[in-house]
Design goal:
95 residues; 5-stranded mixed β-sheet; 5 strands
Length: 95
């Protein structure tokens, strides 16, 4: 994991005001979720994390705070939020 990303992730946790459970961080290119991607995803670059959520209040707070902090990749699933530090225009998607 890139240290600067981990620092930003910790600031995100602090600003949200509750503990995070990270369900996925760094993934090797051979990980099944990454193997189909030609260049590998943000997880293989050490600039992505999936954060478990248990309710809509946590979901909203993470998304809102991550957007204000400038995380450029945000994916929304039923039980986790993906955040990453991609160097592109901001993107938001659902799973």
């Amino acid at each position: 994991m890139q240290y600067s990303f981990l620092e930003r992730l910790d600031i995100l946790r602090h600003r949200c005001g509750f503990a995070f459970t990270i369900t996925s961080g760094y993934r090797d290119q051979s990980h099944p979720a990454e193997a189909s991607k030609a260049k590998g995803g943000r997880h293989t670059q050490g600039i992505a994390a999936d954060i478990a959520v248990t309710n809509s209040v946590e979901r909203y707070r993470i998304i809102n705070t991550a957007m204000r902090m400038g995380f450029n990749g945000i994916g929304v699933a039923g039980n986790f939020i993906h955040v990453d530090d991609r160097n592109t225009a901001p993107v938001l998607w659902t799973y």
